[in-house]
Each structure stands twice: as structure tokens, then as C-alpha cells.
Amino acid sequence: MSRVTPASIPDTQVMDRRNLDWYVDKAVQVLVFVGGVSAILFIIGIFVFITKEGFGFLTTTFDAQEFFTSPRWRPTSEHNPTYGALALIVGTASVTGLAMLVAVPFSLGAAIYIGEFATGKTREALKVLVELLAAIPSVVWGFIGLSMMNPLIIKLFNVPVGLNVLNAGVILGLMAAPIMTTIAEDSLKAVPDGYREAAEALGATRWQVIFKVVLPAAKNGLVAAVLLGVGRGFGETMAVLMASGHSINLPTSIFDSVRALTATIAAELGETAVGSDHYRALFTLGIFLFLITFLINLTADLVVRGIRKK
Amino acid sequence: MVEADRSSAAETDEVVSTAPVKVDVRNLTISYSGKTALRDVTLDIRQNEIFGIIGPANSGKTSFLRALNRMDLFIPGMKVDGSIVLDGREVRKWRNVYALRRRIGVVFPLPVGLPMSVYDNVALAPRLAGIKKRARLDPIVERCLQRAALWDEVKDRLDSLGSLLSGGQQQRLTIARALSQEPDLLLLDEFSIAVDPVTTMRIEEVLKELKQELTIVLVTNLVQQARRLADRTAFFLTGELVEVAATSALFSGEVNDERTRAYVEGRFG
Amino acid sequence: MFEASDLNIHNQRAEKLWRLLFLMMTLLLILPVLIILGVLIHKGGPMISIDFLFTEPKDGMTAGGIFPALVGTVWLVAVALLASVPVGVAAALYLSEYAPDNWLTRAINLAIINLAGVPSIVHALFGVGAFVLFFRFGTSILAASLTLAVMTLPVVIVATRESLQAVPQAFREACWNMGATRWQTIRKVVLPNSVSGILTGIILEVSRTAGETAPIMFTGAAFFLPFLPQSVFDQTMAMSLHLFVISTQVPGVPEALPFGVALVLITMVLVMNAVSIAFRMVLRSKKKW
Questions:
Q1: Residue A253 near residue A26 (C-beta atoms within 8 A)
Q2: Which of A22, A237, A301 faces C120 most closely, judged by CB atoms?
Q3: Residues of chain B contacting C97 with CB distance shorter than 8 Å
């Protein structure tokens, strides 16, 4: 068992040198790591910078009770500016709520049709069309609300103004539907075929399979789809700004005009002086929006991860 | 018990070979995310031999090969303990692991023709080593394809995609690629799984010739292949080295462990 | 026997009804796109002419063309791409080729999801706070494009990561075993086989960037500028903002004008999307393994 190193073996010391390739590889590794971490830096950066601009307001003029319970958003009042965001919150919520009423059944139905019924070319074509629906820019949707939906609503319902919760809700529903359809369809697709085959073997019809087996199994993904749709609705700016009527109101019907959180920032930021209370108040709205959408996305992610673990 | 096996294995190999040690493996233990795949293996591989490793699936054969060229660095969760000394140098002490891997050719169970031309497949390793000139690459490519018994079939279509060759051709392409590294250690992992018997025989002939120049570790699920090719053979079972012996001894029944006899005779596995 | 077949017929009928219902829902979702496109073409089509595309707006933006806005959008998109593609591809490479399964990777993934979910107007606020004020770029193409870049970063990352992961792991391992470094493996095998997928993602990002309005409103896009931008520190007009302005802020605009602008904008966006989709389909049919 003598293990003497024979003389004939190659000189490993000479071979084992770190060459240019080795250093290039290390450099690239560092570079892409920075790229990866940048996503975290950006999300932190967003929070830090909007908080930095809004901070002065949060620590002085900001009154949580007024902010959440008063519908009076009068930042430009000379004598007594008030910063009640209730009407804006209700505006956003009502538009988003109506949008979900429109989008949830339709995108779920579309996801079921595309995922469970359609085959081959039809399926591809429908998916492409849904994708194109998602591609229409929000300012174009806003313009559609303004120029097409507005006269249509006035005519159909005989109301004086067509820019209202209904208009913005339908537009927002159409905007949110594609992403919800796509995610819902993905989660239907993730249900193993074995489930379907097992149910079919027991004599269940296609729709029984869908309602009794596939939908319950895909529940988490569908919830995530709705959550992301809600997030989309909360965050949408241009379309809501143009289609909702943009007047501060606690709506009592879907024909009332409302104003959304996002739209308020978009409409007013241009007219404020940097560092003024009004300017800072708008950033505070931004912080509020950031936190809400962050929470919604986080929840959706956790729900989706729940599926993967199963 | 392991201790007993080891000493008997050592006795046998002293009888078999006096060639210098190429790879000296001691107390090698491999685990994936805490699950042990190979436990406390000690053996040595000698220069210019074909060292066979047999054993049923999941006995740790592939993990053993991976540890030799330090794939544990790139495989998440893979952990290697113990020592592997190649040419007198512990593989984990290499500062440039790529230079280490360049000396070790690997052939997988499933053939992997890279999605580039046949020529580029074989020229990849020389190019990585810095050879750029066509005039120098051409002879290397031809020689490696010749030796892998593939040249005659592809010499007229060196530009076609390597990933679209037939399974048997891709496997020989993989061998040609491994040879293009000019390795001094060649690791073959069940290379004949995706290859027809005729090609297998041709490759086996090639291996016998290659033995003159380099050291070959042949992991195989075909007991008879080890018998045909290997000078010495190790038997792995569920992550343990049962025994190492001269192949002739192993197949003539001179075994120290009944499990080896049972496996070699085809009673399980 | 009879009962069974009755039940069968009943079931078949129910299935047909359900099927029809779901089909209707799908069509109702898709129909608006076609109607919208139809109306835009009908009302905006007559506006489109060489003159419209290549002259400046006149008479307080109630007449004339859209040239400065078109050029501005090209500027904004180009600069945004220059910033986001390298970072996005690097991030995707890290996630697909290097990242171990640990908390940091999970945090990066979560950050990407949230970056995509943050409202566009919040991105605008970030752009104002960070690029316009803190980095002192002022309201400029640079500030606006960087805001857009951060916002569309997830599109590049997700698309790139997907096409990188479509390259089989066996190819990488084959390369590593030959002594290739990770980077050599990426350069010789992974990237050449995913570059078209990455391009598809970039085209998609271009279309997304071109349509965004809120993030550029306060960071670099101007309501009206009679001249073309000379550098990234200038302000510029943009198609999306121009549509907003002439349809809400300017009185006396003839009805057809915003339709024309909307038609051009949506054509740009949809054509790029169509190209991206077509590209993807060609790719799928041309598998190399």
C-alpha cells in the first residue's frame, strides 16, 4: 500500500493557474449579481424616495383621522387646506369593485374556455387576442372611456354625464381582464391531467369535471388572479383619471362621478410647488398606494406559492 | 465491516497492479441536501487502467464521477467529504477548477449533442483552451471524430447540428468532444444506454486502444461490459463500496462478499 | 336503460350550454378590442397622412401633425431600453444561471413581482424624487426614460429568464464538464440559444414603454414643444401624453384629431406586440433540439 507519487505524473502546479478566463468569469458573476440585487434596490429606492418627499407632511400637517375619515380633499384652499382622502379611497374602491364585478366572471369564463374547451388553432388565436387586449396602453383606454363610453352611457341610461363609476369600472374591468385570464388559465393548466382523467373515468361529464375537480384544485391560482386584478385596478392611473369624471364625491350610484387616489396625484402634482404641503400630501398618497399594492402583491405571491408547495 | 472490506480490497489490488496511482480516493462521502448518496469510499485508480464500477441504480456511481471533477461546486445541495487526490494533488485544493476539469473527459448516460454544428461541438474544448486557428482545429476535430468512430458518418456534414444527430451518433460525438479536451482521465457513465449494440462494440474497441494513453473510469450497469473491458472493478451498492478486485477475480468467484457474487451472477440488480 | 340515456342526453345538453356560455364570455372579452380598433380606424383613419406624421402641431395643438411627439416617444423608448436591457438581462442571468435557492433569491423574485405591481403613478413619484430632484437630471428625457426603465425592468427580467431556462440543463452540464467556466457556458451555449427569446421580450418591453403616460408626465414629457429634443437633458413631447393633452386639456380640438393620435399610438403598440408574438411562434416551430 505504498502511495508514493511517481515522477511521471503531470505537473499540476503549472496547470493550476488562474487565467484570464477565470477572472472574467468571476467579474461576470459579480456583475450579474449586482443586476439581480438591483431589483431589490429599486423597490427599496422607490419606498425611500417617495417617503423622503412625503415625510415632511407625515410628521406635521398629516392627521390620520382626517385622512381616512374626511371626504374633504381641499389642498389648495387658501385659508384652511384639508387633506381628507376618504372620497379618493372610496372612489378608487368603487371603481375597482365594479371592475372586478365585470372582470372576474368574464376572465374566469374565458380562462375556462381557453384552458378546458378550446383546442389547437382556436386556442392559440384566443390567447393572442387576450394578449393584444393587455397591450392597449392605459391612456388609450382613457380616451376610449372619454370618447366612446361617455356618449354611449349618456344615451343608454339617459344621464347627464357619462364619465362616472360605471364608465371607469367597465374600462378598468377590460384592462384587468387579460392578466386575470392569463393567470387563471395558467392555474387551470397546472391541475394535473390525472385528476381530470380520474373524474372522467368515474363517469363525470366535462362540466362536472370542471366545477367539481378542476376549479377547486386551481382555487389558489384563481384567488391570486383576482388579487392581481385588484392590484391592477388600484394602481391604474390614466384610464381612471380620464373616465371617472374626476370629481370629489362619495358616490351613491354607479352614475356618480368619482376621483381616484392615483388620478389625484396625476392631476395635481404638476401644479404644486416642490416641498409644499400639497406636494408632500400627494407623495403621502403615493406611500399609501405603494403600501396597499405591495400588500396585495405579497399576498398574491404567498397564495401562488401555496399552490407550488402542493 | 467496512474496515474488513477495505483491507481485503487493498490486498487484491496489490497483486493486480503495480502501476502508479492516478486517483487516490479516501473516505469519500457524498450527500445531496443532507441525503447521503455515497458513504466512506476508499479506493485507488491506477494509471492506464480501465477501472470499472458496477452496481444497480442509486448506488452512488454517478455521484462518484461528479465528485472527481468537482461538479459539487455547480450542483446546489451537493456536498463532498473525504479526499480525492489526482496526480498527487487534492482536487479541492485546485485554485482554478476549470483547469482541473479540462483534464477530465466526461461521457454521460444520455448523449448530449450541443445545439451547434458537429465541427463546433468537437472544436469547443480546444477553442476554450485558446486554439482559434482553423488550421490547427481541423486536424484535432478529425482525429477526435476518427477515434470516436464517427468520422466516416459525419465527415460530409460537419456543419449540421450536433443536437439533431441520431442517439448513437450523438453519444459518439460526446466521446469525440471528451477526447478533444485531451484528457488524461476519461469518465464514462453508462455510455451504452442510448447506443445500439454494434456501436457499443465499436466504442469498446476504441476504449481498449485509448487505455494506452489515458486512465478510464467506466461506470456501467452492464456487468458483462465491465467483464469485457475493466482491469479492476468496484462494486457499489446503495451508497457503499462493497468491494474492489481484479475483474478476472471478481468474475471467477473470488469474492469477499456474497452480495458481489449475487450481483455478478445476475441474481439481483 | 332509458333513464341512463336520458341522463346522458341531459348531460350532453348541459355541457353544450356551459361550453356556449364560456365561449360567449370569452368573445365578450375580446369583442371590445375589435370594436375599439374598428372605431379608431373609422374615425382616426382619415387623419392619417404623411403630413400628419411628419409635421408639428399648429394653432394651439388643434391642428397640424404629431412629429415631435413621435420623435419624442422614440427617444424615450430608446434611452429607457439602453438602461433597462443590460440591467434586466444581468438580473435574469443571475436568477437563471447563478442564484442559489436562498432567501436573497426569494427576495429578488418578490422585488420583481412588486416592481411590476407598483402603480405607474407611484413610479412617477419615484422618478420625480430620485431622478428629477435627487440626481438633478431635471425634467428631461433622461429622468423620464430612467423612470420608464425601472418600471419595465420586470418585463425584461421575466422574459429573459424564461428563455434562458428553456435551454436544457444537460447542455450546461456538458459544457461545464469540459472545463468551461460558467460565463463561457453562457456565452457559447446558453445565450446563442435564448437570444431570440430575449429579443421577443425586449420588443414587448418597447411596446409597453411606448404606451406609458403617468411615469413621464412629471419627469420629462412636455405638453407642447415646437422643437425636437437635442440631447437626453431636453424635455420632449410624447405620443401618449399628447393623446391625454389634446383629449382633455385643450379646448376646441376637432374630434378626429385625438382619434388619429390614438390610432397611431395603438398601431405602434399592437404592431410591436404582433411582431413579438409572431417571433415567438416562429421560434417555437424551429426547435434546435
A1: no
A2: A237
A3: none
CA dihedral A83, A87, A92, A98 (to 10 degrees): 180
* CA distance, residue C178 to nearest chain B CA (Å): 5
Q: Which three cell numbers stand for residue C256?
A: 378626429
Cβ(C247)–Cβ(C253) below 8 Å: yes
- Residue A14, chain B, CB below 8 Å: the answer is no
- pLDDT at position C4 is 54
State how far the alpha carbon of B162 is from the alpha carbons of B115, B144, C192, C282, in Å.
6, 15, 15, 21
Asked if B161's CB is within 8 angstroms of C288's CB, the reply is: yes
* Backbone angles phi and psi of B13, in degrees to 5: -75, -20
Q: C219 and C137, same structural domain? A: yes
CA distance C152 to C3: 59
On whether the CB atoms of residues C145 and A73 are closer than 8 A, the answer is: no
Complex ipTM value: 0.90
Structural domains of chain A, count: 1
Q: How far is CA C268 from CA A113, A233, C179, in A?
A: 30, 25, 46
Assign 3-state DSSP to chain C and report helix, strand, coil percentages, each to 5.
75, 0, 20
Residue closest to B22 by CA, chosen among B80, B85, B76? B85
Q: Is residue A2 situated within a structural domain?
A: no
Give yes or no for a contact between C159 and C198, defined as CB atoms under 8 angstroms apart: yes
Cα separation values, A52 from A55, A63, C56, C117, Å: 5, 18, 39, 21
Q: Give yes or no: residues C99 and C6 share one domain.
A: no
Spatial distance between the Cα atoms of B77 and B54, rounded to a whole number of angstroms? 25
Query: Each residue of C9-34: pLDDT tens digit?
Result: 777 788 888 888 889 888 888 888 88
pLDDT confidence of A49, banded at 50, 70, 90?
Answer: very high
Predicted confidence at residue A9, as pLDDT, reads 57
| Whether C275 and C147 share a structural domain | yes
Q: Rounded CA gap, A244 and A10, in Å?
A: 79
Four-point Cα dihedral B15, B16, B20, B22, nearest 10: -130
Which residue of chain C is at minimal alpha-carbon distance from A21?
C181
Whether C40 and C62 share a structural domain: no
Instruction: Kindly list the residues from chain A whose CB atom is less than 8 angstroms away from the CB atom of residue B87.
Output: 5, 9-10, 12
Task: Flag the least confident range among A260-264, B216-220, C57-61.
Answer: C57-61
Residue A102 belongs to domain with CATH number: 1.10.3720.10
Distance separating alpha carbons of residues A55 and B123, to the nearest angstrom: 62
Distance set, CA C115 to CA A183, C85, C89 (Å): 18, 15, 16
Q: Which domain holds residue A229?
A: 96-274+290-309
SS3 of residue C167 by DSSP:
coil
Distance CA B236, CA B41 (A): 9
Subunits with 3+ Cβ pairs within 8 Å of C are A, B
Q: Are C28 and A170 contacting, i.e. CB atoms less than 8 angstroms apart?
A: no
Dihedral, CA atoms, C31, C32, C34, C36, nearest 10 degrees? Answer: 170
**Can you list the pairs that B90-93 forms with residues at least 24 positions away whose Cβ atoms lie under 8 Å?**
none
Residues B49 and B57: their CA atoms lie apart, in Å, by 24
Strands B78-86 and B89-90: antiparallel
Q: Are residues C64 and C10 in the same domain?
A: no
- Using alpha carbons, select from C196, C186, C198, C197 the residue that is nearest to residue C88: C198
> Which residue range(s) make up the domain with C181?
51-285
Short-list C127, C114, C119, C151, CA closest to C221: C127
Domains of chain B, start order: 2-103+184-264 (3.40.50.300), 113-182 (no CATH)
C-alpha–C-alpha distance, residues B184 and B86, integer Å: 11
Give residues with Cβ within 8 angstroms of B204, minimum separation 6: B225, B228, B229
- Chains A, C: CB contacts within 8 A come to 275
Q: From chain B, pick out residues whose CB is under 8 angstroms from the CB of A13.
A: 89
